[in-house]
Amino acid sequence: AAGAVHGALSAGSLTTTYTASQGLLLMIPNMHKIAGEMLPTVFHVSARSLACQSLSIFGDHSDVMGVRNT
C-alpha cells in the first residue's frame, strides 16, 4: 500500500492511507522514501499490540513509536 501511496505522491496527488499495526511495519522502507523526498501524506493507524503467535486486541503504541522518525 505504501508503494502505491509513493507512486501517487510522485505523480502529484494528495494521498492518505489507513492501516493497522502489522501493516505499518511492512511500510517502513517506503515511508523512508516518502520522507526523504519530502512528499506530504497522512497515515491513519489503528494502533494495536504486535503479537507474535496470534492476533491481539490490546492497544499499544510501540508500532507508531517505531516509525516516528519518518
Description:
- By secondary structure, the protein is α+β, with helices and mostly antiparallel strands.
- The chain has one domain.
- Helix 1 runs parallel beside helix 3.
- The chain is elongated, with a radius of gyration of 13 Å.
Lay out the secondary structure.
Elements: H1 2-10, E1 16-20, H2 21-26, H3 28-36, E2 42-46, H4 62-66
Parallel strand pairs: 1-2
Total beta strands:
2
State the order of secondary-structure elements, H for helix, E for strand. Answer: HEHHEH
Q: Tell me, rounded to a whole number, the average pLDDT.
A: 86
Radius of gyration: 13 Å
Largest sheet at a glance? 2 strands, parallel
Measured by DSSP, the beta-strand proportion falls in 5-15%
N→C terminal distance: 16 Å
Q: Count helical runs.
A: 4
Structural class: alpha+beta
What's the helical proportion of residues? 40-55%
**Given the C-alpha coordinates, what overall shape results?**
elongated
Number of domains: 1
- Record the strand order, biggest sheet: 1-2
Low-confidence stretches: none
Keywords:
two-stranded parallel sheet, 4 helices, 70 residues
Structure at a glance:
The protein has helices at 2-10, 21-26, 28-36, 62-66; strands spanning 16-20, 42-46.
